[in-house]
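Supplementary notes (optional reading)

For those who missed the lab, this is the record we used. Protein: Cytochrome P450. Length: 63 residues.
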Amino acid sequence: MPFGDGPRNCIGLRLGVLQTTVGLIAILRNYEITVNASWPSPLDPRNVFTSPPAGFLLDFKKI
């Protein structure tokens, strides 16, 4: 755990979460994100988690 747990956890926890949230919002606000057309989608629908084993490719288009 990067920030620890319990009464003596990291004092920067809230700042780290806030910065991550602000960064993600900035990306989602300024870019249109789509799955790359060249990526084959080998998803197995029988899996509990439908994430590909080798990840996937995204395209970012500035709005």
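If you only remember one thing from this example: The CA atoms of residues 43 and 49 lie 9 Å apart.
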